[in-house]
Amino acid sequence: MSDGKRHLGAFGQGTGVENDLASIQEASLKPEKDVMDFIQTVVNSLIMWELVIFLWNNPGITDKAQGIATRLGRRKEDIFEPLEVLVKHEILEKWGEDSSPVYAYRQDSKFAKAIEKFVEFNRDSEGKLWIWTQLLHKGLR
Question: Which of 27, 47, 64, 108 is the 20 to 30 Å CA partner of 19?
Fold first, then answer.
């Protein structure tokens, strides 16, 4: 039921999600262009976001999908597609048989600097908020 009063969202706008998201984007700092491009090109889900941070924090990781999933507290089925996207973008190498390949993080990928900046941007609460808004605009998965 409406009490006839206008309720303001967390950012002083109306309670509409679009208004709040627009306010977040305007108020927040933005990452450098290469990081924005990386987010638009690669980071398309919360799982991908988590996976990229995990890989950067564990640069020597070489493991099968099940092992990576276990380390993230996820199901293998949930990370298989993001792993394959990272292979496509040459951020991961893939070795072995198709039924149980081994994945290895490539620290020398064309996205290496952007990933480093992405991780740094992610450490800031406004940076995380900015990334969230991007994922929400893309249709968070």
Answer: 47
